[in-house]
């Protein structure tokens, strides 16, 4: 049913009003709109899910299950202004459940948000929104690896997912102030280690940390 091509360029960006309309049309049932919904969100969900597991088969299965559930239960899904966070949270839950079912899973219920290197556009490149040299990209990966899992995930959701603090709080199951603290502490550590490259990121963040 799902055959999105990750090699294709990302779909044209939609603002949240457009995404809300797309969601509304999808819930009314036309399969063509469902395929449009899949194509629009699949790529960014794939990158987000890929931070929890390197098992691409597991990741694709979880994405398949997520979109299949959406299609089967589309008439029961409630209307929501937080479409992106709904999809992110649903995928996150499915991946965690599948990873913890594996024999190699640890005894606790935590799953690492990994700093996985990729040939595709990464959250870090989206975060600084500029072309990086190979050295700069490598250096940024090293700095992010020094942050906590929660700090890395919050930064990913903020800059790559373009989610509000309220939406991130819902995904991480914490309060809004905790998200602001995670972003502030994580980016402060990056600024201390690499002030010249990340200074303008903090300027951008100063207008959105408490949003």
Fold and architecture overview:
The chain is built from ten helices and no strands. The radius of gyration is 17 Å and the shape is globular. It starts with 15 loop residues before the first helix and ends in a 5-residue tail after the last helix. It has helices at 16-27, 31-49, 56-72, 83-101, 123-128, 134-145, 149-159, 165-172, 176-193, 195-206. The longest helix is centred in the first third of the chain and has 19 residues, at 31-49. The protein has two domains: 16-101, RNA polymerase sigma factor, region 2, helix turn helix motif (Rna Polymerase Sigma Factor, Chain: A, Orthogonal Bundle), CATH 1.10.1740; 123-206, Orthogonal Bundle (Arc Repressor Mutant, subunit A). 64% of the residues lie in helices and 0% in strands. With 211 residues, it is mainly alpha-helical.
The Rg value, from CA coordinates, equals: 17 Å
Distance between the termini: 37 Å
Please write the CATH class name of the largest domain: Mainly Alpha
By CATH's scheme, which homologous superfamily of the largest domain applies?
Answer: RNA polymerase sigma factor, region 2, helix turn helix motif
Q: How much is the average pLDDT?
A: 77
């Amino acid at each position: 049913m799902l055959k999105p091509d990750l090699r294709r360029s990302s779909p044209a960006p939609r603002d949240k009003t457009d995404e809300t309309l797309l969601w509304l049309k999808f819930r009314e049932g036309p399969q063509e709109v469902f395929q449009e919904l899949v194509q629009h969100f699949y790529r960014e969900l794939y990158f987000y899910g890929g931070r929890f597991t390197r098992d691409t088969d597991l990741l694709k299965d979880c994405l398949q299950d997520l979109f299949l559930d959406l299609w089967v239960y589309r008439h029961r899904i409630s209307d929501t202004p937080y479409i992106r966070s709904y999809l992110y949270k649903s995928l996150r839950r499915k991946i965690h459940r599948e990873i913890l079912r594996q024999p190699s899973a640890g005894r606790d219920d935590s799953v690492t948000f990994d700093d996985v290197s990729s040939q595709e556009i990464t959250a870090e490149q989206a975060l600084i929104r500029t072309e990086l040299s190979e050295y700069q990209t490598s250096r940024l990966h090293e700095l992010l690896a020094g942050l906590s899992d929660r700090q890395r995930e919050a930064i990913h959701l903020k800059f790559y997912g373009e989610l509000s603090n309220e939406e991130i709080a819902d995904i991480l199951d914490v309060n809004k102030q905790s998200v602001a603290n995670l972003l502030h502490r994580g980016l402060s550590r990056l600024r201390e280690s690499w002030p010249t490259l990340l200074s303008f990121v903090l300027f951008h963040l100063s207008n959105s940390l408490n949003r």
